[in-house]
Design a protein that fits this description.
The complex is a heterodimer. By secondary structure, chain A is an all-alpha fold. Chain A has three helices and no strands. Classes of the chains: A mainly alpha, B mainly alpha.
Chain lengths: 99, 481
């Protein structure tokens, strides 16, 4: 696959993730969309690393995966606690704080 | 390829890291009350501050040019560690009251300090992201620390989602820059850009810079990207709100200043334009919405948004003086806001209420000294002499005027006149309104100590600012060489 196609793929994935974060109301789906955004970053790093003939990009991917895993762990812990107190995991139920 | 591992380049980080392990061990073996863990944390942060003062003047780049120890990072180390020190002092009693087994409060605070220190000492974009994430991932659970309050969980959840979006934007920007230049080292990027001028007009490069700018704007809450701030600040426990407003903001701005000075000078014009608009909109929106707030924590959240706008005024001017005035602003804001939130911590009740404007009415009759100090902090936030806030605003606006951004300076001064209204409303409530029967508890020693340290800082920076300003100038010079 050519380099340009991979860059376009990663950009499209990033935009899809962004739309998912903005439009979906279920927190779990929002978290999945966030993962999609981070994986778009990974694709760009790996393809750029191949194109540039440097290994740095592939090293960064491991760090990005670590960050994504840590973020998801904390997010899911919060989701569990929110589910226990509110009884739902929809964004619209988190509306005690306004303006 | 050789590996240079000069451990003195990360000596303050090592001290904080060792403290983290010692505190975790003591936390595991101590009983229900956790103040001993807090005391150990205080000693560790104190040792960290002393090491940073001791290392002043050194200039070491190590770990394959990933981390540098220069006066800039040392000054910001001291800033965030002072914020951490005051926060721990203030929380000694608070944590034991809120959570029966809450030792993780201090551990998370230490690990977020560690993240901030790597964030401001990084010379590689990837290390910046790692530091930023270590800081943020420790702050999210702290916002939700009082986990039985629904607003606390709500604030943490919103902060986490928007913070993760910011990280994704930042990483995507870095990946775009990497795909054009093949490196993420700040100095190498600057070198490539200075020799290859056509690169600055490259579309992918511009997109990368824009993505990085958006990611950072989320983290320091500049206006179109500020939506999480009021919710997270109101939901968080009061000491943590102060810590977020002071240290998180200072560390993120430290990274922005570093990136702008080293890399973006070659992009000078479009970035300055973008920052101009961001700062004008931020100052205006933050101050206007703060006027309508009834809850003091939320009011100070909007005020902290506005203050981020004032710091950006220093960045817009682009000169060494403007950058140092931004650093000075961060230090003065750190003292003022941690002090204010120490007093709010005292007023906050166990169920999270107690920070409404009406809770301040008549405070002067029962606590004359505390009210006087709160009034000084409010005047400092509004920028009235002889406080730190006045000198900080003076430096920032004079830097803007010197660089020819007179319109922005006048606009900033006008918005700070608006801000006077809501700061003085707290003072008015304390002195001229009748109280509605408050249960009178003595002020805990930790809170009193924290408030006095903050007051000392506010007065010191307000009356004798030139010494600190010289340190700020040195710190900026250490980046330019």
């Amino acid at each position: 696959m050519s380099y340009q196609l991979l860059v376009i793929l990663s950009f499209v994935l990033f935009v899809i993730g962004m739309i998912g974060v903005a439009m979906r109301r279920n927190i779990i789906i929002v978290l999945i969309s966030l993962e999609l955004m981070l994986n778009a970053v990974n694709i760009l790093f790996v393809s750029a690393s191949k194109y540039m003939h440097t290994l740095d990009g592939q090293m960064f991917v491991i760090m990005v995966i670590t960050i994504a895993a840590a973020e998801t762990a904390i997010a899911l812990a919060l989701v569990v606690k929110v589910f226990k107190t509110v009884g739902m995991v929809k964004i619209d139920d988190l509306k005690k704080l306004k303006w | 390829m050789h590996f240079d591992l000069n451990y003195s380049a990360i000596l303050p980080q090592i001290i904080i890291g060792v403290t983290l392990f010692i505190s975790a061990t003591i936390d595991a073996f101590s009983s229900a009350r956790k103040w001993p863990v807090g005391i150990i944390t205080l000693f560790g942060i104190g040792a960290g501050i002393s090491s940073a003062v001791y290392l002043w003047g050194s200039n070491i780049v190590s770990f394959s040019q990933m981390v540098s120890l220069d006066e800039f990072s040392l000054l910001l180390f001291i800033t965030v560690m002072i914020a951490g020190f005051i926060t721990v002092l203030v929380s000694l009693k608070y944590v034991d009251d809120m959570e029966p087994d809450g030792g993780h409060f201090y551990l998370l605070l230490l690990s977020s300090l560690l993240g901030m220190m790597f964030l401001v000492s990084a010379t590689n974009l990837i290390v910046i992201v790692l530091g930023l994430e270590l800081m943020s991932l420790s702050i999210y659970p702290l916002v939700g620390f009082t986990r039985d309050r629904q607003i606390s969980l709500e604030g943490a959840m919103k902060y986490l989602i928007l913070g993760a979006i910011a990280t994704a934007f930042l990483l995507y920007g870095i990946a775009l820059i990497y795909s054009v230049l093949g490196t993420t080292n700040l100095y190498t990027i600057a070198r490539i850009l200075s020799t290859a001028q056509h690169m600055t007009g490259n579309l992918v490069m511009m997109a990368g810079v824009a993505f990085i700018l958006i990611g950072f704007s989320f983290k320091v809450a500049l206006v179109p990207f500020h939506a999480w701030t009021p919710d997270a600040y109101q939901g968080a426990p009061a000491p943590i709100t102060g810590f977020m407003a002071a240290a998180v903001k200072a560390a993120s701005f430290g990274a922005i200043i570093k990136v702008v000075i080293i890399v973006l000078q070659s992009f000078h014009v479009p970035v300055a334009e973008a920052l101009w608009w961001l700062s004008a909109v931020t100052m205006f929106t933050g101050n206007i919405i703060a006027v309508m707030q009834k809850n003091v924590k939320r009011m100070l959240a909007y005020s902290s948004i506005a203050h981020a706008g004032y710091v950006v005024v220093g960045l817009v001017s682009g000169t060494a003086f403007g950058m140092s005035s931004a650093v000075f602003y961060l230090l003065s804001y750190t003292f003022t806001i941690t002090g204010s939130f120490a007093i709010i911590t005292y007023l906050e009740k166990n169920d999270g209420t107690g920070s409404e404007l009406s809770d301040f009415s008549g405070l002067a009759k029962e606590h004359p000294i505390l009210s006087l100090i709160m009034a000084v902090f409010m005047l400092s936030l509004a920028g009235i002499p002889p406080t730190a806030g006045f000198m900080a605003k003076l430096y920032v606006f004079s830097a803007a005027i010197k660089s020819g951004y007179i319109g922005l300076a006048i606009f900033g001064i006008l918005t700070s006149v608006i801000s006077l209204y809501y700061y003085l409303r707290i003072v008015y409530a304390m002195y001229f309104e009748e109280s509605e029967g408050r249960t009178d508890t003595p002020v805990p020693a930790g809170i009193a100590a924290g408030v006095f340290i903050a007051l000392w800082g506010v007065i010191q920076l307000g009356i004798l600012p030139s010494d600190i300003m010289n340190f700020a100038m040195q710190s900026i010079q250490s980046l330019i060489h």
